[in-house]
TrEMBL record:
BP-aspect Gene Ontology terms: alkanesulfonate transmembrane transport; cellular response to sulfur starvation
PANTHER family: ABC TRANSPORTER PERMEASE PROTEIN, ALKANE SULFONATE ABC TRANSPORTER-RELATED, MEMBRANE SUBUNIT
Domain ABC transmembrane type-1: 59-239
Family: Belongs to the binding-protein-dependent transport system permease family.
Stretches that traverse the bilayer: 63-85, 97-119, 220-240
PROSITE patterns per the UniProt record, alphabetical: ABC_TM1
Membrane disposition: Multi-pass membrane protein
Entry keyword annotation includes Transmembrane helix: yes
Record's protein name: Putative aliphatic sulfonates transport permease protein SsuC
GO CC terms in record: plasma membrane
Keyword Membrane among record annotations: yes
Length: 264
């Protein structure tokens, strides 16, 4: 048994047991099947949505919004994080204001964004962008600020230009922190998307949950919740694979730095 297969089985053990107990309790009549539909009913609802093409329509709309919002957050946060990381003096001017905005959750802005931008895609993408901005910005600034000073001294000694130092020293050093920020930012974007779709949308996973509430169909609501979790998990997995592909030296460094456990 490979290590990957073993870890996968260990990760699936607890969810499998919980779903099995849930299904058994439902069949035995110990749970109210209207308030908490059995897993089999939720799966049937998902298959019905997939068969009619409804699931793909809602999922595609949600993924489009997250893609646009996350892309905008990345292209806004990355250069600003680099700027404040390279020029610590700029933090004195910008950090207080950015810290103030960071304390305001995206959901608090939803009514104002709808008022300013309407209920179309612009307001939803703006909310998603706002949610994903700060994790990317803060981790980028942290990665740049904590670049090893010895590396910068060596680069200057070899006569590298400021741009070459940024590309060959700062960027590789900050890349792990940037990827952590991007991973967190994507998670924040995905969660804020659902809140935006709950308040004003004609399609999307959040709208699907809202539709289930209006139609008094808990199985439809839980099907939407299940799709949120599974899609977010899949996106996070893809991001981890991308990080391992683009930053192969990080795994090597972690294996070298983390000592193996030795029995007494």
């Amino acid at each position: 048994m490979t290590n990957v297969l073993k870890k996968t089985m260990m990760a699936l053990l607890l969810p499998f047991v919980l779903v099995l107990v849930w299904q058994l309790f439902s069949q035995m009549g110990w749970l109210n099947n209207y308030l908490l539909p059995p897993p089999s009913g939720i799966i049937d609802q998902l298959f019905a949505l997939a068969h009619h093409g409804t699931l793909l329509k809602h999922l595609s709309a949600s993924l489009y919004r997250v893609g646009c919002g996350f892309g905008l957050a990345f292209f806004l946060a990355l250069p600003l994080g680099f700027l404040l990381g390279l020029v610590p003096r700029a933090q004195d001017y910008l950090s207080p204001f950015l810290n103030f905005l960071q304390q305001i959750p995206a959901i608090a802005w939803i009514p104002m964004f709808i008022l300013w931008l309407g209920i179309d895609e612009t307001s939803k993408i703006s909310i998603i962008t706002y949610s994903g901005f700060f994790p990317i910005f803060l981790n980028t600034m942290h990665g740049i600020s904590n670049t090893d000073s010895k590396l910068k001294e060596v680069a200057s000694t070899f006569g590298l230009s400021p741009w070459q130092i940024i590309v060959r020293v700062y960027l590789p050093s900050a890349a792990p922190s940037v990827f952590v920020g991007m991973r967190l930012g994507l998670s924040f974007c995905w969660r804020s998307l659902v809140a935006a779709e709950l308040l004003g949308a004609s399609k999307g996973i959040g709208y699907l949950i809202q539709e289930g509430r209006e139609l008094a169909q808990p199985d439809l609501m839980l099907a939407g919740v299940l799709m949120i979790g599974l899609t977010g998990l899949f996106l996070d997995f893809l991001f981890l694979r991308l990080e391992k592909t683009l930053l192969p030296w990080r795994d090597t460094q972690e294996r070298r730095e983390v000592p193996k456990w030795q029995p007494f």
